[in-house]
């Protein structure tokens, strides 16, 4: 249970700077807000910026202390495995050639990741669906977000409805019945697209699981000298490969890949600025 209690929630806020302006420079600048929940009502605030095509991640505490920081996520494709490095500062360049295009019902975040092999050509798109949170209680939202983030951490869909996780949320987190104000928006990732297949993995997610001749495989291959195996499992993390002597566990993503639906309309990956600011009226920021 201690291990589960250490898992915090990451809530990201999505907004456009000077929304509605015709100014080209302003339209190229976007901001995301992130909240890492550490129990009670303590949060760490992250800021994600797109400015002149550069997508950055900034945090009020070192990124290696935050939950699922983009600085720990790496991209492995046919060009080979990247060089791993630990980001202990509070700033990270997540992507280049970045843009965010929004409509009244959807959005597309596109970028070329930086945590990959030198001279890599991978480009990625996150396709998002817009949902209205107006009038929803903070507590209902936060509880579902907690379950969804557990799923993103362990890859087990069954963990979403596990009664033990309901108990953990009830005990470990603050509960606010305040309602989201008018204009609060949730953005749910429904699909990823890219110019080629790739494996995404967190450098902290290592595995000692044996993959041998008795393991049922869905796919396998060798990319620039590194062998990988996709096992037949319902778990989100299905791909094994080695960097040196260390085996890592990641997720194989095809050029067009649907994001698993585990939480329906409350499967929120991003929030807009209105929703994020509303939450911050109740949660206090963690500082070093």
Question: Could you give the topology of this structure?
Answer:
Layout: H1 2-5, E1 9-16, H2 24-27, E2 30-37, E3 42-51, E4 54-59, E5 73-76, E6 91-102, E7 106-113, E8 124-132, H3 138-154, H4 163-172, E9 185-194, E10 198-206, E11 217-223, E12 226-231, E13 239-243, E14 246-253, E15 256-258, E16 270-272, H5 273-280, E17 284-285
Parallel strand pairs: 1-16, 3-17
Antiparallel strand pairs: 1-2, 2-3, 3-4, 4-6, 5-10, 6-7, 7-8, 8-9, 9-15, 9-16, 10-14, 11-12, 12-13, 13-14
Account of the 3D structure:
It is a single chain. This protein has 288 residues and is mostly beta strands. The chain has one domain (2-200, 255-285). 15% of the residues lie in helices and 41% in strands. The chain is built from 5 helices and 17 strands. It has helices at residues 2-5, 24-27, 138-154, 163-172, 273-280; strands at residues 9-16, 30-37, 42-51, 54-59, 73-76, 91-102, 106-113, 124-132, 185-194, 198-206, 217-223, 226-231, 239-243, 246-253, 256-258, 270-272, 284-285. Strands 1-2-3-4-6-7-8-9-16 form a 9-stranded mixed beta barrel. It has a 6-stranded antiparallel β-sheet with strand order 5-10-14-13-12-11, with no helix packed on it. The chain starts with a helix and ends with a strand.
């Amino acid at each position: 249970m201690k291990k589960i209690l250490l898992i915090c929630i990451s809530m990201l806020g999505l907004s456009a700077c000077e929304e509605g302006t015709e100014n080209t420079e302003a339209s190229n600048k976007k901001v995301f807000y992130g909240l890492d929940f550490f129990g009670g009502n303590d949060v760490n605030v992250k800021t994600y910026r797109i400015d002149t095509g550069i997508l950055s991640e900034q945090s009020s505490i070192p990124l290696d202390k935050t939950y699922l920081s983009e600085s720990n996520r790496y991209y492995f494709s046919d060009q080979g495995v990247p060089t791993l490095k630990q980001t202990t500062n509070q700033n990270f360049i997540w992507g280049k050639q970045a843009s965010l295009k929004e409509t009244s019902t959807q959005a597309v975040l596109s970028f070329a990741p930086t945590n990959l092999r030198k001279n890599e050509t991978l480009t990625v798109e996150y396709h998002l669906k817009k949902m209205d949170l107006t009038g929803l209680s903070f507590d209902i939202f936060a509880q579902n977000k907690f379950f969804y983030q557990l799923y993103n951490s362990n890859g087990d869909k069954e963990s979403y409805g596990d009664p033990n996780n309901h108990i953990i949320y009830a005990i470990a987190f603050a509960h606010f019945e305040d309602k989201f104000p008018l204009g609060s928006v949730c953005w749910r990732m429904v699909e990823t697209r890219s110019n080629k297949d790739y494996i995404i993995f967190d450098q902290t997610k290592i595995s000692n699981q044996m993959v041998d001749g008795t393991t049922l495989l869905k796919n396998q291959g060798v990319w620039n000298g590194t062998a990988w195996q996709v096992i037949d499992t319902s778990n989100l993390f299905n791909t094994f490969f080695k960097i040196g002597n260390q085996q890592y566990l990641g997720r194989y993503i095809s050029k067009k890949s649907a994001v698993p639906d585990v939480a329906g309309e409350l499967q929120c990956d991003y929030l807009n600025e209105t929703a994020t600011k509303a939450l911050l009226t109740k949660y206090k920021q963690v500082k070093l």
